[in-house]
Specification:
about 0% strand, mainly alpha, Ionic transporter y4hA, potassium:proton antiporter activity, two-stranded antiparallel ribbon, about 75% helix, A middle domain of Talin 1, 12 helices
């Protein structure tokens, strides 16, 4: 893990999430002037950095792949709560909110985070090495969940529009949750070694070799502050969203751009954590974070909105349009070619970043 953090650093990473949470409590649901928005954005950035620190402390204590799982699940659970809250507000825009958020999360994680991790890892060592068995299994789970939940609604005929009927939504929710549970069991119990970093020769690395793991007390404390930091990140991201939305509208951009920006803010902790792992030649951990977040985003969001749809009114459009389906298909195909060899160069990282850039560009200019 490197050098032990100073006392000042520890105090800072505990104080910033609390301050950010206090700012969130004061500003929640209010119209904010520009100066306050800037302060909220500053708190958001500090909470992101604090979240990465506390996630690493927890990861060091519990070991991999549990550490990656903690951060991915924590971010996704809070993100799902935000989606349901925004859907409860109603309005025409809420019909596609879940679809747009989940698809943005898949593209950000599977192309943005993966691309950056491969680029950083390969640049330092020439080739980025990772475990084929675990990464292929994770990618197969992402592809299956995305197709069942985001592609099939476009082609089903029982209900007009890109929507599931009630029984279809329940089926999608059950299989999504089942697949997520099966993946977590494989990742943490039955085939845990598939998700650990590997050397150039394919040998599994030790979970941590650079420092003594923190005590259980320190780990629990960091877990608590991690949750506070993530709540602050997601809540403050929503707080600045009206300003982002008005800016996007003033620039004449599609409303979907707002969802992309919010998703980028929410996924910042995982992005920074993945980059730090890649710099340490632990690209497998970066891929665990990326694919695990995509799986959790779909596997937990679909069941949550299926339950929420009992009391939420209005349509729920989950099916992707043609452009996004092409991007998803290309992402799955390119990702398969990337992960099967178990090693990647700067080129593969660049290809994924081009796909991510294409997603952002087409969100701006559909």
């Amino acid at each position: 893990m490197g050098a032990k953090p100073s006392a000042f650093t520890n105090v800072g990473t505990m104080a910033v999430p609390v301050i950010a949470l206090a700012v969130l409590a004061v500003t929640w649901g209010r119209s904010l002037p520009g100066v306050v928005v800037a302060a909220v954005a500053l708190c958001l950035a500090g909470a992101v950095l604090a979240a990465v620190h506390h996630a690493e402390v927890v990861a060091h204590r519990v070991g991999e792949p549990f550490g990656s799982l903690v951060l991915a699940v924590a971010v996704t659970v809070i993100e799902v709560a935000l989606i349901v809250t925004l859907m409860a507000d109603g309005g025409d825009k809420s019909a596609t909110l879940a679809r747009d958020t989940v698809f943005a999360a898949v593209m950000i994680t599977c192309n943005g985070i993966v691309g950056l991790a491969l680029l950083v890892g390969a640049k330092r060592k020439g080739v980025a090495n990772f475990n084929t068995e675990g990464t292929v299994a994770a990618l197969a789970t992402v592809a299956t969940l995305a197709t069942l939940s985001l592609v099939l609604p476009t082609f089903t005929t029982s209900k007009p529009g890109p929507e599931f009927t009630g029984p279809q939504l329940i089926f999608a929710a059950v299989v999504s949750l089942a697949l997520y549970g099966l993946f977590v069991a494989m990742q943490t119990v039955r085939h845990r070694d598939y998700f650990l970093p590997v050397t150039r020769d394919g040998e599994v690395m030790d979970a941590e070799t650079h420092a003594t793991p923190p005590s259980a007390r320190e780990a629990w404390r960091s877990l608590a502050f991690l949750l506070i930091a993530l709540i602050s990140v997601v809540g403050n991201a929503k707080g600045v969203s009206p300003t982002i939305e008005s800016g996007v509208k003033s620039a004449g951009l599609p409303h979907a751009v707002v969802g992309v920006i919010i998703a980028l803010l929410v996924l910042l902790p995982e992005t920074l954590a993945a980059l730090r792992s890649a710099r340490r030649d632990r690209v497998q951990i970066s891929l665990n974070l990326a694919h695990g977040s995509a799986i959790a985003s779909i596997g937990l969001t679909i069941p949550a909105i299926a339950i929420a749809s009992i009391w939420l009114s209005g349509p729920l459009e989950l099916g992707l349009g043609p452009t996004h389906m092409v991007l998803l298909a290309l992402t799955v195909m390119v990702s398969s070619l990337t992960v099967v060899p178990g090693r990647a160069t700067v080129l593969q990282g660049g290809v994924h970043l081009v796909l991510f850039s294409s997603f952002v560009f087409l969100a701006i200019s559909p």
